[in-house]
Amino acid sequence: MNIIDTHQTNNQLAPNHWHEWVINSAVDPKLTALNVRSLSGSEVYEYLLYALPQTARRNDGRLRDGYLKRYAHVESGAWWVSGLDPQNSWLPMDWGRMKPDYPRLEWDKTTQEQTQKPVKYESPPKTPNRVTYLRVPLHIWRLIALRYDVPMPEHITVTSEGEALGFWAWVMAHPEIPVCLTEGEKKAACLLTLGFVAIALPGIWNGRVSKEDLEYLHPDLVPMAQQALVQGSTCAGEHLCREETCSKSSPEASFPSAPQHLSPSAYSRHKRKFVILFDYETKPKIKQQVFAATRRTCQVILQLAGECEVALLPGPEKGIDDWVVALGKKADKAVSTMIADALRISELNQRFFVNRARGLHKFKPNIVVNTRYLSTVIRSLPQSGLVGLASDMGTGKTEILAMIRRDNPDLSFLNNGHRVTLLKNLSDRLQTAMYSAISCGDWAKAKALSITVDSLYKMANDLQAYDILFIDEACQYLAHLLKSKTCKEHRGAILEVLEYLVYNAKLVVLADAHLDDLTIEFFMRMRPAGEKPYIIKNEYRSGGRQVYWYEGKNSSAIVAEFHAQLMLGKKLMMVSDSKRFIKKLERALNDAEGQRCRGAEGKEVIQQLSSAPLLPCPPALFDDNDETPESAEDRKLRVWAIHSENSGSEENVIFIREINIAIKDIDAFLITPSLSSGVDISSYHFDAVFGVFHAVSQSATECAQQLWRYRPDVPMYVWVAPRPPFGYAETNARHIKEKILQKNEMTAFLIRINRETGKRGAEKDWALDASCQIEAQRNWSINNLRSDLRSLLEEMGNTIIPLGDGGDEATSRWMKAAGIAIDEEHYRKVANAKDIDRRTYNSRQHQDYLKPEEVLECEKFRIQDTYGMSVTPELVEKDDSGRLIKKIVALEAILAAPGEMITDEQERECVSPPTVVVERDKSERSRLAICTDWSNHSTAWLMRHRLGLRAVLMDLMAGVEIKGDEAMIQALAEFSKRNASHVTGV
User: Fold this and answer.
1) CA 336 to CA 315: how far, in whole Å?
2) Which listed site, 241, 244, 315, 360, has its alpha carbon 20 to 30 Å from 33?
3) CA-based diameter of the chain, in Å?
């Protein structure tokens, strides 16, 4: 590639304008300098008013006073941005947009008065709006070419200002490159900086012109929407095949002027894909406008035989540039995921009108009531069919089943649930036998039985038809059934047993506060054909609480408030989606240092810790005249924690069974999702409920379930992580399904089994679709948990009281120290645990609950068996709960000699994986019946092999020093960027 570069620095920006673009909007400095200039004084009129007719000027050429008065505010300073003209050979365009430093206020034509809304941007009057194609420097062009694996021209001229000429002509000639449409030049520049092709619209309605009954794509966008002849088409799995066999063999091949000797079959018509990316909005009226503008822009693109998808910002940041700045180094991956996750217009329609699939929309209720307790209105249910009870938390859904059980003791009854604690609670209320209390072979003898979904496969050899099948918390049950790791080994058998039970039961009852269409539809697929569900909906809302809402980057402020209120003598309940957090908080509260401020001398410390209005304090709490010494027992907080490691213990089983009495003896009650459903704390004891959610595992509805375990009307204090700590997950069910099937098919090819049988497992189409939809919905809620949970709490009728985004450094250090202490203690306890044999270890793997000392013994055996050496605290730490051996296995797979070259039916060559990798995939396919549970190790191995990791690791093991600038490393980096979406997917 020959580059003519006479670039010199030419800074035309005022410091405040440079900061707005480069710092606040994450735009590349060279890209900014090419497109933006600062203006002031009379110079602004030359740019902004260029299109005015002669009548706008006096005879002496001076602008008339009306225009001077209207735009006088711009003289104080503004920045101006303009781009290239697609209708004039990509020459600089006169039209542009200006942002004044001191904007004027908007004029309301209806009231003929000035509003308080500023006009942020000024467009040239008396001329149609244009779209902005920004000038691009060479390094941005290279980044885009690398991202989309499209060759650049051999000769590129770079101007003295740093513009690489011909960029947009190159994009136009390559319709395989998708184009983002966004509102505003800064947002388009931000996307270009990350390596995405982006065009700036001056407003959400400016992608189309004319009126709704006869509108068409904006003329400036038409060149990009037109189809072009290009060589070949992108093949499925092409990123995994040898580059020598790839259809894109030369830079010229992708241009319309490709060599004529190529056969006609080598060409195909590419549709240009447009991705519309507008701002994140929360106001219903504005959301409706954005949706309408998006839909109509999509329609005019589709009219030209193009493709159009819509990418949705997760929020809370308003624009893409704000989001990129907030994400920092994680921005590239997050934006790539978001754009790859774009929706078709039909999918956007469904998502917009159905409110994220929460609630019932497709299935209309047969009975609608509004009552505090459902059982006072609904005294009976239909004798057969599928019944859905959609009623808020604590409204007595289970009591209806309890009445039916009392009135019909002879009917056989199966209570199926996803959590042991839920089942045990319901077992007492519904008078059923617990499956764990009787032997497996005797389950069929029980007239009424409660069993977890995880153990459902054990009923396969002794199935019977039940009169009533009851599933409480049905939405969470379905998510657990299809997605949980605990069901993985037997998911196929569980689904078969469930299908038999649902089909043959006379009456199936599904109950959930947030019962949705997907759950109803899933179970209806297993019912006899032609049957219709019977839905009872209770519109009563158990909200009305005050929710103090924390928006800090971490949970330190709310933990400080929790601790402060405990020190003031309050009784508090803390719920969280993180077992790690609950254990750290328990440890910190039990630490004597953490309790030393209890009493009169602690008033000042407590007030410093507190970041929210405290609850009313007992008058005698701080009696300075009271010299009676406080006993050590009185000073010590009574803390009780329940999580997955101890929820099955004998003391916790008793505690949960008698929870309304047991809580009377504790000050702080800390719980995880192990106690998120099925347990109602109805007696008043706690003065407030706190919630800390880290956006890792629970959706908004599941978080709300936890908060409402305590029924009395008390204030709530809630903190939710601003964004998921491990990155944004896929939210498009169609894409999720496509990736699953593609990876399964590729793995089947690599391990040389029948590709047709390798595509899918034993699951039904509707089960796979439901699994993908659940994953998409949960991912969306977790990606947007802070806004989604807040929205849900508002929908439930609660009052949100914002408490700001402050933090507490001392509390952060306090919790960190507790975490370190927990880890060190765990390493020591595992190393000192009693030795057990393999038979004991294996037998314990099938037990529902292990005592803490038994867990430690099993962990010691696993580590000793894995590494073949004595277990020390240092080895336990390095093992990292089994993560180290997984990394070692992956490393061995990479270092193992690859197999022979194999060719598919499209003549693409791939290297077959080592035998050890192939056997793992074959073992999974023979052991696991459901394709969503397959890990596809061979596909992951091939991606690592194609990255060149084996060669790098071989050099490192041979003692070769690698600095990072070697050709091998550069090739690895380029391949990674070029196939970023595929690498992430695999």
Assistant:
1) 16
2) 315
3) 105
